[in-house]
Automatic annotation (TrEMBL), chain A:
Transmembrane segments: none annotated. One of its GO terms (molecular function) is glycine dehydrogenase (decarboxylating) activity. It comes from Aurantiacibacter gangjinensis. Belongs to the GcvP family. N-terminal subunit subfamily. InterPro entries: GcvPA, GDC-P_N, PyrdxlP-dep_Trfase, PyrdxlP-dep_Trfase_major, PyrdxlP-dep_Trfase_small. The gene is gcvPA. It holds the Pfam family GDC-P. The keyword Secreted does not apply. It catalyses: N(6)-[(R)-lipoyl]-L-lysyl-[glycine-cleavage complex H protein] + glycine + H(+) = N(6)-[(R)-S(8)-aminomethyldihydrolipoyl]-L-lysyl-[glycine-cleavage complex H protein] + CO2. This is Probable glycine dehydrogenase (decarboxylating) subunit 1.
TrEMBL record, chain B:
It comes from the Bacteria. Binds 1 lipoyl cofactor covalently. Belongs to the GcvH family. One of its GO terms (cellular component) is cytosol. The modification N6-lipoyllysine is found at K59. The lineage of its organism: Bacteria, Pseudomonadati, Pseudomonadota, Alphaproteobacteria, Sphingomonadales. The gene is gcvH. The glycine cleavage system is composed of four proteins: P, T, L and H. HAMAP family: GcvH (MF_00272). This is Glycine cleavage system H protein. Keywords: Lipoyl. It comes from Aurantiacibacter gangjinensis. Pfam families: GCV_H. InterPro entries: 2-oxoA_DH_lipoyl-BS, Biotin_lipoyl, GCV_H, GCV_H/Fam206, GCV_H_sub, Single_hybrid_motif.
């Protein structure tokens, strides 16, 4: 394959072939007053590479990076340690430059990687079948809702109030175009999620119930109970997970009655990266639902000589065959992020993931105990994994801003997540991972104590 | 029971007001191993020529069109677990759906077995 730019000769040959005198002649139809005459307003014409680098460095110094602060932000994106070998492996040219595995004869490595990734996700989620990844957790959430509509032929969606509000927003946005009716709710600041309220909203028109596990406030629902209620009504249970490390400590949703399990895979291998690119994980428990799944699947097979090989399978549901019948408008997967996930997961192994989860929870428990001792701080949760909600005697958003000025990134205020919801002003979501030190916890506790006194 | 054929390689058995629709042996042979069939739900109203079912083989995915207008009374649920029935018994057990015929005049435009054979020989 050649990846060479056009030469003048190539260009002339093409113009001669189509009978155009010049490239400009091709754009004859564009009215002349629509052409850009001068520089774009507000943009400098050009700068030297050195000047641009200097400018960008100056801008980047305005950031307070996670690694440079006592850092407690989570809410769907978590700071974890990513081994250096992950980055090394994903940057190998064979992986980094491979774009799309439509050509199995030159993409066996990519396809095998995706197959193994799918196997890891399916095992992590307790599901039968996982796809080769989607763009991120929030868009995967919409895909699950759309899929539930295809399976049940119903159009009423019940969202848990404790679903990450950005995920709920993506679902609402997409539903505008599909006429799905979304029944949502606001989160309640109680120690345990309002599962009774959620179950009460399920009816015989409901296609699916969407719950987050652990939920956006860090709480854990009894999934099996919600699954039973959903199934009794003929609806599917969709479970969202934004912190896959948690599944090293808590039961996989697929083993608790979930029909579709999806989530954000960023925690494993991917890094915070200022918000993207991230990694949507998606899996189902019932093999019969495989044809309604979005995205691509990689399958294992044997060739004519009986040798093991890998192929993209069920391609009729994807965009390149029968485009109008595709199950999703997503026509690729987050290949490199999936590779990073897979490499990190392989390095961890079963025991490593369990140990990592235990360490996250241990430090989070220490943090919750310590922070609960700060006057003016109440820990909301009875149960949590590595993220929990604090109720402060004061506006959490302001306190977060003040503490950031002091080099402490204290967490995510609930007002930031739910800007319109009343009564959440004092809520602060705090995440702790293996990268959090006991010194960091002490720094946060002291800073909060000072601010609240 | 008269059997009619379409140029889209569907067959239609007519029994009173009810028609049974499948794809022909010629069609299944062209498709190769059938791996999935999606049949319409009971109660679906189909216009003549509307997309009625989907058949996927290892080689291709194709729509099956309603050869005549009508209301679906039954989809062949056996195909859900045994799509290969389309290969082994295209003319019989591999039927796709039954419908109540809306307009019997529409049958006039279809081929009989002899005409269909001639049609296939010409392909």
């Amino acid at each position: 394959m050649r990846y060479l730019p056009l030469t003048d000769t190539d260009r002339d040959a093409m113009l001669a072939k189509i009978g155009a005198a010049s490239v400009d002649a091709l754009f004859d139809d564009v009215p002349s007053d629509l052409y850009l005459k001068g520089p774009v307003e507000g943009l400098p014409l050009h700068a030297s590479e050195m000047a641009v680098e200097k400018h960008m460095r100056r801008l980047s110094k305005q950031n307070l990076a996670a690694a440079d602060a006592a850092f407690f932000c989570g809410a769907g994106a978590y700071r974890h340690h990513v081994p250096a070998s992950v980055d090394h492996i994903i940057q190998r040219g064979e992986f980094l430059t491979a774009y799309t595995p439509y050509q199995p004869e030159i993409a066996q490595g990519t396809l095998q990687m995706l197959f193994e990734f799918q196997t890891q996700v399916a095992r992590l989620y307790g599901c039968a079948i996982a796809n080769a990844s989607l763009y991120d957790g929030s868009t995967a959430c919409w895909e699950a809702v759309a899929m539930a509509g295809r399976v049940t032929r119903r159009k009423r969606v019940v969202l848990s109030g404790a679903l990450h509000p950005h995920y709920a927003e993506v679902v609402r946005t997409m539903a505008k175009f599909t006429e799905d009716r979304i029944a949502g709710a606001r989160p309640s600041l109680t120690a345990m999620p309002d599962d009774d309220g959620l179950i009460a909203r399920i009816d015989d028109q409901t296609s699916c119930v969407v719950v987050q596990y652990p939920d956006v406030l860090g709480r854990l629902s009894d999934l099996q109970r919600i699954a039973d209620a959903a199934h009794d009504a003929g609806a599917l249970l969709v479970v969202v997970n934004t912190e896959p490390v948690a599944l090293g400590a808590i039961e996989a949703p697929g083993n608790l009655g979930a029909d579709i399990v999806l989530g954000e895979g960023q925690s494993i291998g991917v890094g915070l990266q200022f918000g993207g690119p991230y990694l949507g994980l998606f899996a189902v428990t019932n093999p019969k639902h495989v044809r309604q799944m979005p995205g691509r699947l990689c399958g294992e097979t044997v060739d004519a000589d009986g040798k093991r090989g890998f192929v993209l399978t069920l391609s009729t549901r994807e965009q390149h065959i029968r485009r109008e019948k595709a199950t999703s408008n997503i026509c690729t997967n987050s290949g490199l992020c999936a590779l990073a996930f897979s490499v990190h997961m392989t390095l961890l192994g079963d025991k490593g993931l369990t140990a990592l989860a235990a360490e996250n929870h241990r430090l989070a428990a220490i943090a919750a105990d310590r922070l609960a001792k700060v006057p003016g701080v109440t820990v909301l949760n009875d149960h949590f994994f590595n993220e929990f909600t604090l109720m402060l005697d004061g506006d959490a958003r302001q306190i977060v801003r003040d503490l950031a000025d002091d080099g402490v990134l204290a967490g995510v205020s609930l007002t930031r997540l739910f800007p319109d919801a009343e009564g959440l002003e004092n809520g602060l979501l705090v995440a702790v991972t293996e990268t959090t030190t006991e010194e960091d916890i002490e720094t946060l506790a002291s800073a909060l104590q000072e601010k609240l006194s | 029971m008269p059997r009619y054929f379409t140029e889209e390689h569907e067959w239609i058995d007519v029994d009173g007001d009810t028609a049974t629709v499948g794809i022909t042996d010629y069609a299944q042979e062209q498709l190769g191993d059938v791996v999935f069939v999606e049949v319409p739900q009971s109660g679906t109203e189909l216009a003549k020529g509307a997309e009625a079912a989907v058949v996927e083989s290892v080689k291709a995915a194709s729509d099956v069109y309603a050869p005549i207008a009508g209301t679906v009374t039954e989809g062949n649920s056996a195909l859900e677990d045994e799509p290969e029935l389309v290969n082994t018994s295209a003319d019989d057990q591999g039927w796709f759906f039954k419908l109540t015929i809306a307009d019997k005049d529409e049958l006039d435009g279809l081929m009989d077995a002899k005409a269909y054979k001639a049609f296939c020989d010409g392909l």
